[in-house]
Amino acid sequence: GKFYGSEFEQFVCSQAAVIPGMAIAVKTYSPSTNLPGFAYCDAFDESSQVQVSHSSATKSMFAKAFADHLSAVLGYTHCKGLMLDLFLWHAPDWVNSVIVCDDNEQVNETMTSFHRVDPSALVPPLTMILVSSEKTDATVYNKQLDEHLKKVNSC
C-alpha cells in the first residue's frame, strides 16, 4: 500500500534521531539537488549479483514511500508526475516535447492534468497515451503520435 499523509510524515519525523535526514527528506522536494536515474544506476550496478543488497532494497522502499508522499502533497495522483517534474528540471535543451505511455489510469490522470511544482516553469507539449492490455491496432497509437507532432510543430 501507499504511505503518505500527515500520520506518515509525523511518524518519519519522530524517527529523525534514529535515521538522520529522514525528517527533511519526507518534507522536501529539491530537484536542484537530485538527479534522475540514480535508483536505476544503483540497481544496475548490483545487477550482476544474484540478490539486491538489503541496503538497496531498504533505500528503494523509502524512496518509493517518500515519492508517493511528496506526490500527494504536491497534487499528483501518481508519483510519475513528480518523476516527470524532476526529469523536466534536468532535461537537456533538445527535449522539446514529452510522450508518456502507460497502462495505469492514475498515471493517465496525473499526466492529463500535469503541472510543474514551480508554477513559473514551462511545460513542453505533453501527450499521454493510455496503453490497453488488449491488442490494439497500431493506427490508434500512430494517430495519437501524429496529434502530438501537430502540437509540437505549432509551438
N-C termini distance:
41 Å
Q: Cα-atom Rg, whole angstroms?
A: 18 Å
Mean pLDDT over all positions: 87
Structural class: mainly alpha
- Count of DSSP helices? 7
Which bin fits the share of residues in helices? 40-55%
Description of the molecule:
The chain is mainly alpha-helical and 155 residues long. It has seven helices and two strands, in the order αααααβαβα. It has helices at 6-14, 22-27, 38-45, 54-73, 79-90, 105-112, 138-154, and strands at residues 98-102, 126-130. The protein has a two-stranded parallel sheet with strand order 1-2. Strand 1, helix 6 (105-112) and strand 2 (126-130) form a beta-alpha-beta unit. Helix 4 packs across helix 5 (79-90). The chain is globular and about 55 Å long. The mean pLDDT is 87.
